[in-house]
Amino acid sequence: MRVSNVTVRRRLAIALFVGILIFLIIDIRLGYVQFALGDMLTDRAKGSWSRNIPFEPERGEIIDRNGVALATNMSAPTVWVVPRQIKEPEATAEKLAAVLDMSKEKALKYVTTGEMIVRIKEGRKISHEKAKEIRALGLEGVFIGEDSKRHYPFGSYLSHVLGFAGIDNQGLMGLEKYYDKELSGEKGSVKFYANAKGERMNDMADDYQAPVDGLDLKLTVDSKIQTIMERELDIAEATYKPDGIISIAMNPNTGEILAMSSRPSFDPANFRNVAPEVYNRNLPVWSSYEPGSTFKIITLAAALEEGKVNLASEHFHDHGAVEVGGARLRCWKKGGHGDQTYLEVVQNSCNPGFVELGQRLGKDTLFKYIKGFGFGEKTGIDLQGEAKGILFNLNRVGPVELATTAFGQGVAVTPIQQVAAVAAAVNGGTLYTPFIAKELIDPVTKQVVMKNTPIAKRRIISEDTSKQIRNALESVVAQGTGGNAFVEGYRVGGKTGTAQKAKDGRYLENNFIVSFIGFAPADDPQIVVYTAVDNPKGTVQFGGVVAAPIVGKIIEDSLRALKVEPRKNQIAKKMKWNDVPMVEVPEVIGLSKKELSEMMVNLKIDSSGEGDTVVRQSPQAGVKIKEGSTIRLYFSK
To answer: Which residues are catalytic?
Structure first.
């Protein structure tokens, strides 16, 4: 059958149109793939060729309030291998094994594994010397990645607070864990390209993605005060061989922790060398025990605030014991203190006198103040493992429980609770949340990313009551049981504590936690220091004998470090038989040597300079020093 020319032309036109349409569709598709999907497909292809050697970020440093580094980083290279790039596995394994102190068989497993890229466990965070040795071997398929490890420049200093980081620079304990997310940063990498056989594609440049370093953490801790505390705790540990020691220093007006330490201690870089119970327990926030007489400050505050006692005019007669609910509660002094003003009850830490105050208050009022001062709940400090202590259930508080609670027995509190509560008692009556992290800082821009500020929880007592407490506790140090914390020139207040330890519901024989909590200056407190010594050996186990001198020394040196000026209007110290008399340094500037010889009968002179007239002296006039001490005089013509 013959087809007409018109039909042929129509068919050709249709075929041409379909052909053009198909080519147009193909062309559009190719254009779409080339221009719209090109980058994505190229990235996918490069992704299938790429191999990553990770670069760890620098973990943020932890520094004290003055910028002193407490936790830093040390560069520590790590060895990686790409097995498919290794052409001589036996020789490579032998050379790696020799440098990394491992068996050839184990090294051979690493370099012949079927994985794309492998990190050698024995080559993690090696020394720079070993990394240099491996680079010098020029082994194909062996790479050195940049890494770091945590470094604690002061060893066991502040160890329980700082905590430590693991092999992967992850925070495991203490502040390292509490602020791990902020300190960690983000990983980077070096990306190189290899074909399906694992051979490196030298025509493609390596890609480098820089890691983002972690934020620096600035603490409220003052390393000068921390150093003083560590020194005194080391001396106490060597002297008394105790089961443990706890110490905290805090700014009572803000809640900032200035120092914190405990014994036994450990080196964060070698935490595996000590028992877990040593590094797992930050005792100042974790441990709970009967506070003893330091708790009497709370009873005193409640009685003064409620108008239940007048310290100067009211008297109490102590017979040495008091009968309550069929129980005989004794004073620490056999035979008692006899007739006393209530100020002397505080100075003498007289148990029966505080039983009387507890009874005047009643259980509802006393426990209202106990809870108001923060006992029975966590303080909220930014440290792990905080306990909340143990209080009597109010429904189960009878006459005996009320009486014992009034002088600090039968309740369990934490050291940080005691410090926060006493700070509130002496700062004007406001309870603050303790905190130890001050700021998070960007290490590049130095901008402050996060800042903690003081948090006032509540006002518990009035300024007038707080002033009375300060005066009473200053008299405890000057004329009462806290005499060993007395610091000449500084007005120190405080309270002793001696608590018998309990185990399985029974008190232990001759096993006490002795403590002292002090503050200064008494007219304007800048620091509160608490120290507790667990079962000191070879001494009388009293807080005034063991703990008070430790706190006194910490306060004295800390006030000087804080540049707090001495006070001249402190309460005179009640002298004991073994105390060296104190003398006031006279004003001698302008006097001649002859005039000096007529007045310096109880002080020694260390002189310098030429001439006959005093132009400078140290200490300055008005400061009290021990009789027989040396003063330095500078002479000039």
So the answer is: 293
